[in-house]
Specification:
By secondary structure, the protein is an all-alpha fold. It has ten helices and two strands; from the N terminus they run H-H-H-H-H-H-H-H-H-H-E-E. Helix 1 packs across helix 3 and helix 5 packs across helix 7.
């Protein structure tokens, strides 16, 4: 019976190491000696020698032929078109939905195991930040909402976001005023001080209505009965006089 050989872990080599072995071969050292000394395969050494003498680069994309590069681009484009066709078929009901963003997010969620999020967002014309924000699980605010309603009722419907936040701080609740305001709006909690109240309008002396006594009857008037002049304000001491 033959014993199962343990598989050797995959090794990676830097470009400096590859170039060093190629230079040893070009300087006259035999391949078998290099393979035995550095414990590498012959096919790998032949590949490095070919890459170095052909393009001078050990990167795979720099050593591809034009046909290989065109084939890779064609496959990439074909895969992109298949993804767009698949996504657009599933999003056929977007135009009938009132909230387009929710429908798009649902499509992305259903296909996140097949396609990248950025590619699907590009096809559906939705930003990645919108997807991540909408798909994020919202925190349960049941206890917080109940606490805010209790504080609001105990204040006889007078407290606003500022005072409610102070009361929550006393209970070691770290909540922003914006979040408190959002919950109050959802629950229909409106402070008494924010309700517009009627204020009687007081006319100022210069804005009060004055009866038209003369009524443009300037003739046949007694002397100095009608006097027309401009009022001039003069500051005297700490007050204005006219």
């Amino acid at each position: 019976m033959t014993e199962n050989k343990t598989r050797r872990p995959r090794r990676t080599y830097i470009d400096e190491f590859k170039n060093q072995l190629v230079q040893l071969h070009l300087n006259g050292k035999r391949k078998c000696d290099i393979i035995r000394e550095y414990d590498i395969s012959g096919a790998l050494l032949d590949k490095w020698i070919k890459q170095s003498t052909t393009t001078g680069s050990f990167r795979e994309k720099d050593n591809r032929s034009e046909m290989e590069q065109e084939l890779i681009e064609f496959r990439k484009r074909n895969k992109q078109l298949e993804m767009e066709n698949d996504i657009l078929k599933q999003a056929a009901l977007i135009q009938k939905s009132k909230r387009h963003s929710w429908t798009k997010i649902a499509v992305i969620k259903n296909n996140v195991h097949k396609y990248s999020v950025s590619a699907m967002c590009s096809v559906l014309q939705i930003s990645r930040s919108t997807y991540y924000y909408e798909s994020k699980e919202k925190a349960v605010e049941t206890k917080l909402t109940a606490e805010i309603k209790r504080i609001f009722r105990e204040s006889r419907n007078n407290y606003g976001t500022r005072k409610i936040k102070k009361e929550l701080d006393k209970l070691e609740w770290q909540v922003s005023r914006r979040r408190i305001g959002r919950i109050m709006k959802q629950e229909g909690l409106v402070s008494n001080y924010t309700v517009a109240q009627y204020k009687p309008h007081v006319d100022k002396c210069n804005e009060s209505k004055i009866a038209n006594v003369v009524n443009r009857q300037f003739k046949n008037q007694p002397e100095c009965n009608v006097v027309v002049s401009d009022l001039t304000y003069v500051r005297v001491g700490m007050s204005w006089n006219w």
